[in-house]
Amino acid sequence: MQDTEPEGWTWVLLSENKQFVFNRSVSLSYRPSGTYSIKNKVLTLYVNEDESYIFSIEEEKLVFQSGKFAENFVEKGAVFKLSDKE
């Protein structure tokens, strides 16, 4: 995550096969995973019908918009820098 303190070490890993893992905080043992889609500069992470996460895509960055199971750990507007490193 960029422009925030690294204490939570929050990250999203996107795989070429449309799978993802979302680490919302190192203090949490549950890491949501599932499939993702990109449409109209919006990245949507789908875990199940009750759990999804929305990011806007702005140049080389992902900006967190919503996700009810992440909002206590990731602030709306948090910026994630895109990288090809795992």
Task: Describe the protein's topology.
Elements: E1 11-14, E2 19-23, E3 33-39, E4 42-48, E5 51-58, E6 61-66, E7 79-81
Antiparallel strand pairs: 1-2, 2-3, 3-4, 4-5, 5-6, 6-7
Could you characterize the architecture of this molecule?
This protein is mainly β. It has one domain (6-81). Helices cover 0% and strands 47% of the residues. It contains no helices and 7 strands. It has strands at residues 11-14, 19-23, 33-39, 42-48, 51-58, 61-66, 79-81. It is globular and about 30 Å long. Mean pLDDT is 85; it is low at 1-7.
The percentage of residues in β strands lies in over 45%
Arrangement of strands in the largest sheet: 1-2-3-4-5-6-7
**What spatial form do the alpha-carbon principal axes imply?**
globular
Oligomer: single chain
Q: Write down the secondary-structure element order.
A: EEEEEEE
The biggest sheet, with number of strands, parallel, antiparallel or mixed sense and barrel status, is: 7 strands, antiparallel
Please indicate the count of domains. Answer: 1
Could you say which structural class the secondary elements and strand pairing correspond to? mainly beta
| Nearest-integer average pLDDT | 85
CA gyration radius, whole angstroms: 12 Å
Distance between the termini: 13 Å
Low-confidence stretches: 1-7
For the secondary structure, the number of strands is 7
The percentage helix is: under 10%
Number of contiguous helices: 0
